[in-house]
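U., I forgot to send this yesterday:
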Amino acid sequence: MAKKLVQNYVFNAGLGLSDNLRPDAYSLISQNKTFLQAEINAYIQNQIDAANPDYVGYTFDTDKCTRDSGYVIDALLFDLRYGGNQETRRVSSKYWNNEVPQIDGNRIPEYEAYQFLRDTNNNNILTNVEDLTPEQGSQVQVIDVDLTSESGTDTRVTSLLDDVVAVITYGLSSLPALSIGLGRVEILGKVGLQDILIITNTT
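Result:
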């Protein structure tokens, strides 16, 4: 049987398919994804109801907000699991098309929502501390005392979400340098390892 040639392969040290750099933090955030999405929606709605000047005239679509915050949370989870910033960088870049923002208005509600996400993650989700002043979203925070967030996770959350905020605020020029975390090789189809020929550059 002829071997399949994999060209231009760049080797990055990787994790096993089920491994995770920050399993406890990942689980805490993942279990609270719907809670965080609901809290973000409630946070924005509360600002509108309070007639916050930065939110006057803001068109609030809860379905789109839930969708977009889900993308950001999923990207955050990926980069916490594997390291690097590739997914939060990719997702934040979608807020612009070259120099054209893909968000109407002053973009303040969007970036304040992710600052709120950052703070709620760090102060409540990762610490298993019940949010005693919730934004009255429709979900309940999951407390799992069997899990202890790995050291330094709050710093990584802050860094990744602050990058999202900077890109939303200032544009693609604020995209951080790409940092690739630990990865894995994925080959489509049913292929035995004995049938693969990999050419690597060792320099």
